[in-house]
Design brief:
Shape: globular
Low-confidence stretches: none
Strand content: under 5%
Radius of gyration: 17 Å
Mean pLDDT: 87
């Protein structure tokens, strides 16, 4: 397994959760510090993936454009809890790998909250959005997920309902609940289920109807500029 992949999992499973946990204990606007640390931890595996080759500036430009599209997918669509953001993040991960999907997701959450408002929830959103890209990119690179619109759409929707959405609900519970026990946590998950289902439906529809054209455009960019070539040893 590549060092960037190992570091990515360490960041996701250890560094980011610890940063969010201890950051939540700090008073005032300490969440700005937490967000900065989480972003740095997310960026480390991405830049380590550049090891052994010479990245070009246009690669970073493409990442910035995809991040902007993910932000627009959340900000521009006026329907509450029915956004294209997760779909864009996941499709970007299919095209450019889990490290890139993780980074785009985290940056999209941070950037879009300049419109919706920053707060203690932002680091949790950064982790959840990043996780959506990480999962899609990883299972695709492993060959467990085929590049077919129906299978990608189903995987995207299911991952939001059973993992990404509950992770967001856990963060909300830790922030809002004064009494934290199995009953209160179960109530939080149940109340968040309609939101997660709505997001899952939006993700399914975007990937199913727009996924292949979106990926074809990214394929042309990769082919023309020789960008983000895969390394051995997934």
């Amino acid at each position: 397994m590549k060092k960037s992949r190992i570091l990515m999992f360490i960041s996701l499973l250890v560094l980011v959760p610890l940063t969010i946990f201890f950051g939540s204990k700090l008073p005032g606007r300490a969440y700005y510090l937490t967000m900065t640390l989480v972003l740095l931890e997310v960026m480390l595996p991405f830049f380590l993936s550049f090891e052994g080759r010479k990245p070009q500036a246009r690669e970073l430009v493409v990442i910035a454009v995809l991040c902007a599209l993910a932000v627009a997918g959340r900000v521009v669509i006026p329907i509450p809890n029915f956004k294209a953001t997760y779909a864009i993040i996941m499709l970007s991960a299919v095209a450019f790998g889990p490290e890139t999907g993780f980074l785009i997701g985290a940056m999209a959450a941070l950037t879009s909250n300049f419109f919706f408002g920053q707060g203690t929830h932002t680091p949790w959103q950064m982790m959840a959005y990043g996780l959506s890209g990480l999962l899609m990119g990883f299972v695709f690179q492993k060959g467990w997920l085929k590049r077919k619109k129906l299978s990608m759409a189903i995987f995207g929707a299911v991952s939001i309902v059973i993992l990404v959405g509950p992770l967001m609900d856990t963060g909300t519970a830790l922030i809002e609940l004064s009494v934290f026990n199995p009953e209160s946590l179960a109530a939080r998950y149940l109340s968040g289920l309609p939101v997660n289902i709505s997001q899952a439906v939006a993700t399914f529809l975007v990937i199913f109807f727009l996924g292949n054209p979106f990926l074809e455009k990214l394929d042309r960019v990769k082919l023309r500029y020789g960008m983000m070539e895969e390394e051995d040893g997934i």
